[in-house]
Amino acid sequence: MTLEGPKPDFLNAVRKLRDCLKGVDFLYPLKVDELDKLMGAMKKRRYPAGHTVIQQGDIADAFYLISSGKVSVSIKGKQVTSRFPGEYFGETALVSDSPRGATVKTEEETELYILHKDDFKNILMANPTIAAAIKTHMAKLKMETP
Q: Cα–Cα distances in Å, from 41 out to 10, 17, 125, 126?
């Protein structure tokens, strides 16, 4: 019997997800092992083109990171931007109880990593250093915003 290590595709997917999470401004200060805890809570889901992922005004309950595909972001029915692989949306759901500020629809088949608010809170409660790093970074961002 031979033991095999992780498959290269899996390792590349893990590296890609970790790099994407490092690009999220409020997760930037986290260390690799802290990011790995968040990654462990994320779920991957594929959506067909034209699917509404989040609806403006709905209860915000998850954060989304685009693995592949493309989404459009609309406010009050008017498209304001598009998002691509490596980008994210819904981040305020993790740190606020505000309703969704925009509608996000897939423009093509899209694969998303999803981090639910409850999972995020559980990770923060079990890992106070993550909570402190995020809180400090969010306070800094708030002070820098005009």
A: 16, 12, 14, 13
